[in-house]
Design goal:
Blueprint (H helix, E strand, L loop, with lengths): L3 H11 L4 H5 L3 E8 L2 E6 L2 E4 L7 H15 L9 E5 L5 E5 L9 E5 L8 H6 L5 H12 L4 E5 L5 H9 L8 E5 L11 E5 L13 H8 L6 E4 L6 H9 L7 E5 L3 H13 L7 H11 L2 E7 L5 E12 L5 E11 L10 E5 L7 H6 L6 H8 L11
């Protein structure tokens, strides 16, 4: 096996045109649309650079080095590469014929400094009361789904929330390509494997998930739900494996449940829709919705509790925190405040049974909203 430092040296040479951006901590994304068209993202804003590769072949050579590093095929029969670089950056690359103009690459870079809730607070990603509420919900083993669009900060939020898991718990992490940096001591990292050039040897997320259930997990962290593993996660959440954490692409809390439902159906489940919805609503306790705002900043926009389904088999949601937008400032930033809605979580008895308390602002907001009925756990 070739040593990692040798790979890093060879890859560094192959990626020389974008090397300065790989060294720049302020760059969070490198988007290579073609060998001569390269964009970077800083603070949520894209800008074009003067960097360029000599040719498509030189860019392809760098991609083949990355593919070799992670042991994944990359050719005309396998034109999509999902991988990570030695420094942990996530790579998504597409080759012709699916990218007719030449190799298209996106390199998502992650801060070497681990993000914590305290740091997210300084960035204005959420409020102190919201952070304290999430701490109580995580500690009492509520199942949490972090949802949002591409680049909305889902992975950063998941990393930060992992630090709230109590010490002494065994955490199993399952990902397509390893990128999570969980802030725990007892962590088992599992990574899916695509088929080889002969179409054999694939290990799917679902395979790993089923195996993880026999590895004594206190908590299961699924990097991202993309397909039928949604059904497996639902089954785990409803069979005693509390405190699960995962992410999914969705725009609003209700969209999150609808998307999880659709992904579960992709697993070939033969359940009536009403039964699937009842299981899903019973499995997911909390939805943390993230978004990238117009000014490029990433923020939590909702913290919502799932209360089950009503008599029409529609999902019932209880928004605990929502955002209130204010007038944009002269520098283009949009002040947004994440505030309690006045609704108390139906699982408040579970929180208190764990010796935990919610921020006083939730009770104060509830007293200001006495006429609205509070939800309760199904």
């Amino acid at each position: 096996m070739i040593p990692v430092d040798v790979f890093e040296s060879v890859l560094r040479t192959a990626l020389a045109p974008v090397a300065p951006f790989l060294d720049d901590e302020s760059v969070t994304e490198i988007a290579i649309n073609s060998p001569s068209e390269i964009f970077i993202e800083r603070r949520g804003q894209l800008s074009r650079t003067d960097a360029k590769f000599d040719s498509g072949d030189s860019l392809l050579s760098a991609l083949r080095i990355i593919a070799q590093y992670v042991g994944r095929p990359l050719d005309e029969q396998h034109p999509i590469l999902e991988a990570r670089m030695p420094d942990g950056s996530r790579v998504e690359a597409l080759l012709p014929p699916v990218a007719p103009d030449g190799p298209a690459v996106s390199i998502r870079r992650f801060s070497k400094e681990r993000l914590t809730l305290a740091k997210l607070l300084t960035f204005g990603a959420l409020s102190q009361d919201a952070a304290d509420t999430l701490k109580a919900l995580i500690e009492c083993k509520q199942n949490v789904v972090i949802a949002g669009g591409t680049g909305s900060g889902k992975t950063s939020m998941l990393n930060a929330l992992s630090a709230l898991i109590p010490d002494g718990e065994r955490v199993i992490v399952i990902e397509d390509a390893r990128e999570l940096q969980l802030q725990r001591e007892h962590v088992v990292q599992l990574e899916a494997r695509p088929p080889d050039a002969r179409g054999k040897g694939a290990i799917t997320i679902r395979d790993l998930f089923k195996a993880s259930l026999r590895m004594r997990p206190d908590r299961i962290v699924l990097g991202e739900i993309r397909g039928g593993e949604s059904l497996d996660l639902i089954q785990a959440m409803t069979s005693g494996h509390g405190g699960c954490l995962t992410t999914v692409h969705a725009t609003y809390p209700i969209d999150t449940l609808n998307r999880l439902e659709t992904l579960a159906l992709m697993g070939g489940v033969e359940l009536p829709l009403s039964a699937l919805r009842a299981q899903l609503a019973s499995a997911v306790d909390i939805i943390v919705q993230t978004a990238r705002m117009r000014d490029g900043r990433r923020r939590v926009t909702h913290i919502s509790e799932v209360l089950g389904v009503d008599t029409n088999h529609s999902y019932r949601l209880n928004d605990l925190f929502t955002t209130r937008s204010m007038r944009p400032l002269s520098d283009g930033t949009v002040p947004i405040e994440l505030i309690p809605t006045g609704a108390l979580p139906g699982c408040i008895d579970i929180i208190r049974a764990h010796g935990l308390e919610l921020p006083s602002s939730l009770a104060q907001a509830a007293r200001r909203k006495p006429t609205e009925q509070q939800g309760s756990c199904p």
